[in-house]
Amino acid sequence: MFKFWKKKPTETPATKTDAETTVAAQESVAEPLPVIAVEEPNLPESSPPAAPATTTDSDSADTEMAALEVVNPPAIESSSTARATWRERLAASSFARGLSSLFQRNPRLDDDLLDEIETCLLTADVGVSATSSLVEDLRRRMHKREFADASALLAALRSALRELLQPIAVPLDVSGAQPFVILTVGVNGVGKTTSIGKMAWRFQQEGKSVVLAAGDTFRAAAVEQLKTWGARHQVPVISQGQNADSASVIFDALQSAQAKKLDLLIADTAGRLHTQSGLMDELAKVRRVLAKLDPSAPHEVLMVIDGTTGQNAVNQVRQFRQHAGVTGLVVTKLDGTAKGGVVFALAKEFGLPIRFVGLGEKAPDLREFDPAAFVDALLPSSLG
Ligand SMILES: Nc1nc2c(ncn2[C@@H]2O[C@H](COP(=O)(O)OP(=O)(O)OP(=O)(O)O)[C@@H](O)[C@H]2O)c(=O)[nH]1
Ligand SMILES: [Mg+2]
């Protein structure tokens, strides 16, 4: 167990110029500019340098001691272990269960089999559009006698599913800007804050310096939740009091990340529905304010989708893409009761890159999206 110095809230960092402060203040609805707290763990000298360059302007501030348990982060899994785990984690999805029971019955190669596959795909949230094009293509090829038996058809389904996902398996490349700014958005409870904590761990494992912005100022618990992830993985968190202006928190965080030449800023935001126009306007304001410090920021607007929400996820992405300029997706909670098919529906409908998927609650359970491992995990292993 390491001991951390937990800092009291400090004054606004001195690095902010008058002009910049004016920008934030003009944009801010909260007057006067709120106090910023930088929650930053201070590792003992004997410990290994977990995160590079994380000192803050407020190091001289009064401190109070808080003992926090440090969970030793597990290393990112080797690809062979990761493959095995994809299957383990996705085995409960109705996609995997439906197709397994269908093919265990040794079905005959006929139109009935295709009808059953169609039902399986629709039940698993693959969506009407993706399902029809997959099944109609297989039917056409079956009638041309391309398949010797049902397992040849399953093999063709496997490659068609992989092909559908291949174009959207584009990993997030954060090397294009410094600091690279990720703005995380989505509806309530989908896994935004958790995914930010997991991403922070992942990027840190890759040797990058990360800072988090507690831009969900809606509830006090949201700030605390992010701070807990920050403390667990030794990542500084920039926050202000509850009900502070979200854009102002994220602005300050970018300013601090720029001053310290950090690699990455990941900003949390409150969950919202597209119908909440005030909250959607807040996202537009965050973008405007960030652009004052770096016209190219945010470099990624990452929308988090709950994999258990089914076809509703398609509507959510449509709305957020229109209002918040989404550039990439994270699909969470694919372990457990998720049907799994929504990933195909999203691929067919939008072609937006899926940067990560959530296969569990621990940090290494956020995986870079691997279409082959994903499809193999959903289809019966013994066939095709
Ligand atoms: N099983 C599982 N649970 C997850 C995953 N990702 C997130 N969760 C859980 O989902 C719940 C909600 O996660 P949060 O990160 O708080 O979601 P949020 O989008 O930040 O929620 P709001 O801030 O309220 O909008 C938590 O209990 C997480 O542990 C995942 O990939 N798998
Ligand atoms: Mg949250």
Molecular structure report:
The protein is α/β, with parallel strands linked by helices. It contains 13 helices and 11 strands. The chain has helices at residues 18-27, 79-90, 94-104, 111-123, 128-143, 150-165, 192-205, 220-232, 246-259, 277-293, 312-324, 342-350, 371-378; strands at 3-7, 36-39, 63-67, 180-185, 210-213, 237-240, 264-267, 300-306, 328-332, 354-358, 366-368. A 9-stranded mixed β-sheet has the order 2-6-5-7-4-8-9-10-11, sandwiched between helices. It has a two-stranded antiparallel sheet with strand order 1-3. Helix 12 links the parallel strand 9 (328-332) and strand 10 (354-358). Helix 11 runs parallel beside helix 12 (342-350). It is elongated, with a radius of gyration of 23 Å. The N and C termini lie far apart (49 Å). Mean pLDDT is 81; it is low at 1-35 and 40-74.
Taking pLDDT < 50 over at least 5 consecutive residues as the criterion, the unreliable ranges are 1-35, 40-74
- Ligand list: guanosine-5'-triphosphate, magnesium ion
Mean pLDDT: 81
What is the SS-derived class?
A: alpha/beta
The end-to-end span amounts to 49 Å
Number of strands: 11
Strand order of the largest sheet: 2-6-5-7-4-8-9-10-11
**Largest sheet, if any?**
9 strands, mixed
Order of helices and strands: EHEEHHHHHEHEHEHEHEHEHEEH
Percent of residues in helices comes to: 40-55%
Rounded to an integer in angstroms, the radius of gyration calculated over CA atoms is 23 Å
Percentage of β-strand residues? 5-15%
Number of helices: 13
Oligomer: single chain
Taken from the alpha-carbon principal axes, the silhouette is: elongated
